[in-house]
Amino acid sequence: MTVHGQKGFKFQNWAKTYGCYPEMYFQPTCVEEVRQVLDLARQQNKRVKAVGGGHSPSDIACTDGFMIHMGKMNRILKVDKEKRQVTVEAGILLMDLNVELSKHGLALSNLGAVADVTAAGVIGTGTHNTGIKHGILATQVVALSLLTAGGTIMECSETNNEDLFKASQVHLGCLGIILTVTFQCVPKYHLQEISFPSTFKEVLDNLDSHLKKSEYFRFLWFPHSENVTVIYQDHTNKPPISAANWFWDYAIGFYLLEFLLWISTFLPRLVHWINRFFFWLLFTSKVENRDLSYKIFNFECRFKQYVQDWAIPIEKTVEALTELKTLLENNPHVVAHFPVEIRFVKGDNILLSPCFQRDSCYVNIIIYRPYGKEVPRLDYWLGYERIMKKVGGRPHWAKAHTCTRKDFEKMYPGFQKFCAIREKLDPTGMFLNACLEKVFY
Ligand SMILES: Cc1cc2nc3c(=O)[nH]c(=O)nc-3n(C[C@H](O)[C@H](O)[C@H](O)COP(=O)(O)OP(=O)(O)OC[C@H]3O[C@@H](n4cnc5c(N)ncnc54)[C@H](O)[C@@H]3O)c2cc1C
Q: Carries keyword Transcription (predicted)?
């Protein structure tokens, strides 16, 4: 059994914002084949990067060395019904895992917005959803195994190699090739989603009350306006219902929005009206949906976009959002596409989790690229980053930011500890790339 590499492969991330030409592209089917790739890389002094679903909006998965696509290592290895735990190969897509878990009467207690992402990929960058009693997705991991640069398989969990475990839960792809992941699951459940219109002021004035009212509370703010959509998701025993929305279901809304956003690249102030128009068109009435949990958590994202998403201390939510709104009001030439998505996540003790030791509020901003056209975003991006830094924020590892090692040293109490673990496991930097050099050098 010898793994074969492919030359001339072009990798592009989902948003088509970053890509690369790896020298060799491998699709191993088992641990032995991954080991062969690492052996070859060691002999030839090459760098290696694993890629999962390729959904990271940044260049964190890019390399000009060897790329290992984990898509053929996607089996479910063990379902422990008593403990409600599932062990999977790291390349399994969550969309496949969700369906399989459901057959066993199980589910993950929280999920991000999309499902064509892998087990190792989502934990690696600290993927999160919302719910102040829920941590980032990596907090659902109870054990994992990885193959180090030296060719050793390391197993770790809360009780075995604990330091390595706390580093590997958000691993940034730089500790080794993650081979297996064990998730703690919960009994399969249904969710009811209720979304209703509100205002910026109302939501910020009553934040605590919203957080108490719904297990998975989040809201969407339509910048350049007061408009907000509140979204509650909660457990339910009622039968599934789906609110028909012909505008989204038949993609008419997407085509119209893309066209209008393209026009607005010539008339930037039009964005203020586009944001208001779409709120009026789609979000002014109460909408109710009920279904299996993963069908409610996930949605189909059709738009390629640039994105930033920082986690700030939860007590800074009002201050940060008010400043962001003021920034836009004082600078009408700055364009902010809808929505700004606000989510809430429980603190944890994972070394590089943006929620390390604090409950957090994530503020997700986007700029679309209508028909692939670039919309100027520098002023918005820098203004947002300045506010996020001022209130003690930490950027999402998979999304845009301009931070370097100096920033991360200040942001993360456990940063040095993570670095020491990484340097011990990978002294030559086999698993680094240009993106990670900014983090570690
Ligand atoms: C439409 C869309 C919606 C999104 N929604 C959310 C959201 O709701 N919340 C959120 O937090 N994020 C969200 N994201 C970001 C996304 O969840 C993360 O980028 C996630 O890491 C993607 O998983 P992936 O499998 O595609 O990983 P990739 O992008 O392929 O890889 C991510 C990192 O993991 C490493 N890696 C992958 N597999 C392995 C392995 N086996 N061993 C070692 N390293 C590995 C890669 O090298 C890379 O560093 C979204 C992205 C998109 C495009």
A: no
Residue 93 has pLDDT above 90, yes or no: yes
CA of 122 to the centre of ligand 1 (A): 5
Cα(258)–Cα(256) distance, integer angstroms: 5
Check pLDDT > 90 for residue 303: no
Q: Average pLDDT in the 382-393 region?
A: 98
Q: Which residues contact 220 (CB under 8 A, 6 or more apart)?
A: 228, 229, 231, 283, 338, 339, 340, 341, 342
Q: How far is the CA of 138 from the centre of ligand 1 (A)?
A: 12
Q: Which of 113, 315, 146 is nearest to 216 (CA)?
A: 113
Given a cut of 70, is residue 246 above it in pLDDT? no
Query: What pLDDT score was predicted for residue 1?
Result: 64
Alpha-carbon distance 96 to 103, whole Å?
Answer: 11
Average pLDDT over residues 63-82: 98
pLDDT of residue 254: 84
306 alpha carbon, distance to own chain's centre: 13
Instruction: Say how many Å lie between the first and final Cα of the chain, rounded.
Output: 38
Does ligand 1 have an atom closer than 6 angstroms to the CB of 139? no
The SS3 call for residue 313 is: strand
Tokens of residue 159, six digits: 């009780």
What is the pLDDT at residue 388?
A: 98
Ligand 1 pocket, residue 179 CB under 6 Å = no
Q: What are phi and psi of 367, to 5 degrees?
A: -135, 120
Pocket test for ligand 1, best of 17, 18, 114 (most atoms within 8 A of CB): 114
Distance CA 346, CA 131 (A): 7
Average pLDDT over residues 224-250: 87
Does position 356 have pLDDT exceeding 70, yes or no?
yes
| Closest residue by Cα to residue 141 from 114, 167, 123 | 123
Question: Which two three-digit tokens encode residue 123?
Answer: 């934990």
Query: Crossing angle, helix 317-330 and helix 378-390, to 10 degrees?
Result: 150
The pLDDT value recorded for residue 39 is: 97
Would you state the structure tokens that stand for residue 52, as one six-digit string? Answer: 């999962």
Give CA separation, 128 vs 114, 124, 284, 320, 428, in Å.
11, 11, 27, 20, 31
